[in-house]
Amino acid sequence: MANVASTIPTNTKSNDVSVDDLSKQIATLRKDLSNLTSSVAEYGRAKTDDLKTGAMVKGSEAVDEVTARAREAQAQANQFITTQPGLALGLAAGAGFLVGLLTSRR
User: What pTM did the predictor assign?
Assistant: First the structure.
């Protein structure tokens, strides 16, 4: 950002500031403000892209972990059913009976 005092010529003959000097200073301030606004907007877009990428990576990792845990639980359930089919059938019947009681209209 430009230093306003060094880039704008001032009236050195007196302490009075002319309208032209003020107009030039305002124009310089507008230009500096425009550059600053552009820089902040660009920074915001870059930061948004970084955060979006990070969130997508973490989301993908979470999905992978949940999928792995679900497959592990399914494997354990299959193993339980094959090793103790009678108990598995009894548990399934009991769970069905409880669900039926809870959802029946009385």
Answer: 0.50
